[in-house]
Amino acid sequence: MNIYDVSDRAGVSIATVSRVLNGNHKVSDKTREKVLRVIEECGYTPNAFARGLGLNTMNTIGVMCADSSYPYQAKAIYYIEQNLRANGYDCILCCTGDELERKKECMELLLTKKVDGIILVGSSFVYDKKSENKYIVDAAKQIPVMILNADMDAPNVYCIITDDVKSMEEAGMFLMKNKEDILYLYNAHSNSGKRKIQGFKNACKKSGVGITEERIRYFDGYHENIPAVAQLLETIVNEGVRFSGILCSDDALAMGALRFAWEHNLKVPEDLQVIGYGDSMLVNCCNPGLTSVDTKEEVMCQQLVDTLLQILQGKEMPQKLVFKGKLVLRGTTR
Amino acid sequence: MNIYDVSDRAGVSIATVSRVLNGNHKVSDKTREKVLRVIEECGYTPNAFARGLGLNTMNTIGVMCADSSYPYQAKAIYYIEQNLRANGYDCILCCTGDELERKKECMELLLTKKVDGIILVGSSFVYDKKSENKYIVDAAKQIPVMILNADMDAPNVYCIITDDVKSMEEAGMFLMKNKEDILYLYNAHSNSGKRKIQGFKNACKKSGVGITEERIRYFDGYHENIPAVAQLLETIVNEGVRFSGILCSDDALAMGALRFAWEHNLKVPEDLQVIGYGDSMLVNCCNPGLTSVDTKEEVMCQQLVDTLLQILQGKEMPQKLVFKGKLVLRGTTR
DNA sequence: GTGAAAGCGCTAACAG
DNA sequence: CTGTTAGCGCTTTCAC
User: Fold this and answer.
1) Tens digits of per-residue pLDDT, B169-228?
2) All domains of chain A in start order, with CATH
3) Helix A191-207 vs helix A164-175: crossing angle, to nearest 10
4) How far is B196 from chain A (nearest CA, A)?
5) Which residues in chain A touch residue B279, judged by CB atoms under 8 angstroms apart?
6) Do B255 and B286 form a contact (C-beta atoms < 8 A)?
7) Is the pLDDT confidence value at B285 over 90?
8) A207-227: per-residue pLDDT in tens?
9) Secondary structure E strands in chain A
């Protein structure tokens, strides 16, 4: 069943059927009804590939993420998909992992599939070296590239980011109000990961606390491996480092910190304060509840999609949207 | 830049270019190299829409889920995407929510987009009423439909499921070894949700424990709302129901149970035992660690994709793959 | 308001 | 081994 069959049965030309299909006004009501009836009867739907070939678009957006099972990315994908679909766009999902080479491949693939735009979810897509971001810059020469949570500057690349520096600074200063021995724990050397560290360092400076590398520690493990985080803290203590507060670059790390507290019979927040980042479901999975930074993910994703849609319609849009995180106080801090 | 441009520059016909592109053997090495060089030089990539139109496929699979931000679904999507991509297929993601109407719409849409197969992630897609599964049966008349975690019987519909009855029965019997006052907590009336309840009931029977509705309780709230789960348990206690063990249909509910224990200074597992389902990252987010049923999600997803790929190649495959869950003992049980 | 016809870029059957 | 050509099904311009 194709447009010819419909035109035959309706006794009109394929051009007319096409017009009806596309809501073109220049069709008489009578003809329109006749065509619609036939379409209804036959259950005809236009061939998407043919349409794509003619119009050079199939209304799809490529969504890339490192690992869609990470809670943050999973949420983002959900919000993005919902917003795009509500506007008639499909999502092709690509989980790239962490290797640059795979990211390039996926990007290439999406371009080949002729998506109308690309959304990069998560800050791991943007590197320090300019040369390693070439794949993004190149892609942006063809179609708009939206980046959630990473900051870079190139034509046709749009960044929707949290002001991680400020947000983390605020959280850090909260812990440093009357304590100097705060530990910073992170698990990604990504673009936003670096901004967060900067925020911690800023907090140190502003609070008159010395910055030492032994208090800025990297967790090199699988994000779900909470026990390993606790172990890392054990190692740090064994090195002789003492701390009364831990600032974490995400909530999972904070869960590890709490686990460490349990294992050592430390009272939270009396003996140890903990702050997470992301305000995920994990904040309620512990007792007391986890103080965390709400990064307003849903709003960011909405804005991202809105912006993209406008761009696709040819509008000029801001290259950077910056949101400020909000420290949500719960029981793991005083 | 299209196939004609390439053929011109290489001094061959478009048929030859097409052959080179598709790895057809009947091209001389010399010609092949010449063509490949031109392709390389021009950075030519074939137009996916044109190819799709001719072949009537763009090698995409529709992946439907209710909410990709639920940890279980997020994981499944990740595994499925990885496996499909490794075999040259793209995923179009559709998050449908819980309403049947939206599920139908999404299904329709994917069919219109001419995907090669459809994967339904999560058991909420299959209903009790046969008439409400018609959208699946109809879709399966056109393309294979794979269902993760729900059981139904129709031509061209393939189910990859956990033996929830047996798995839950085993977990229940573990708790009922020497206690009768076990509570069953669930949060979905879905296909697999019902099998799980059946498992609990079986455990009661086999353990000689009476089945009462007041011990089989539904949590009607957002899956991440751990405090609300604890509140529900409070309500149940206030009704006069007592329990020394809680069997939960997923790990998030179990976190709520643990929260309830904290709030009431109940020792786990001495005063209250808890078992979750899914063996998610949450099992390590609490102290002691959560005993849970490992449903081997990754393996199931691999098998699902494998099966689908074989079906697409015309092979006859089993309509149902059943995996048995495994009870992983941790600190919340004795 | 409607129809004829020219693409869109590729694959594959057929002929040589 | 290589080239010619007929689709694949739709949109859109140009006549009428």
Assistant:
1) 999 999 999 899 999 999 999 999 999 999 999 999 999 999 999 999 999 999 989 999
2) 3-52 (1.10.260.40), 60-162+297-323 (3.40.50.2300), 164-294 (3.40.50.2300)
3) 40
4) 24
5) none
6) yes
7) no
8) 999 999 999 999 999 998 999
9) 60-65, 90-95, 117-121, 145-148, 157-162, 182-186, 216-218, 245-248, 273-277, 291-294, 320-323, 326-328
Could you tell me the distance in Å between the CA of residue A30 and the C1' of nucleotide C6?
A: 28
The C1' atom of C3 and the CA atom of A52 lie apart, in whole Å, by 24
**Residue A121: what pLDDT?**
97
* Whole-number Å distance between alpha carbons of A116 and A108: 13
Using a CB–CB cutoff of 8 Å, tell me whether B224 touches chain A: yes
The number of residues in chain A equals 334
Looking at the partner chain, which of A52, A93, A95 has a beta carbon nearest the beta carbon of B52? A52
B27 CB and strand D closer than 7 A: yes
Q: Could you report the per-residue pLDDT of A247-290, keeping only the tens digit for each?
A: 999 999 999 999 999 999 999 999 999 999 999 999 998 889 99
In the 3-class helix/strand/coil scheme, how is chain B assigned residue by residue? CCHHHHHHHHCCCHHHHHHHHCCCCCCCHHHHHHHHHHHHHHCCCCCHHHHHHHHCCCCEEEEEECCCCCHHHHHHHHHHHHHHHCCCCEEEEEECCCCHHHHHHHHHHHHHCCCCEEEEECHHHCCCCHHHHHHHHHHHCCCCEEEECCCCCCCCEEEEEECHHHHHHHHHHHHCCCCCCEEEEECCCCHHHHHHHHHHHHHHHHHCCCCCHHHEEECCCCCCCHHHHHHHHHHHHHCCCCCCEEEECCHHHHHHHHHHHHHCCCCCCCCCEEEEECCCHHHHCCCCCCEEEECCHHHHHHHHHHHHHHHHCCCCCCCEEEECCEEECCCCCC
pLDDT value at A204 more than 90? yes
SS3 A201: helix
CA distance B201 to B209: 9
Categorize the per-residue pLDDT at B26 as very low, low, confident or very high, splitting at 50, 70 and 90.
confident
Q: Is the model's pLDDT at A25 over the cut of 90? A: no
In the 46-105 segment of chain A, residues within 7 Å (Cβ) of strand C are 50, 53-54, 56
To the nearest whole percent, how much of chain A has pLDDT over 70? 100
Q: Averaged over B230-258, what is the pLDDT?
A: 97
Amino acid at B26: K
pLDDT in tens, A240-254: 999 999 999 999 999
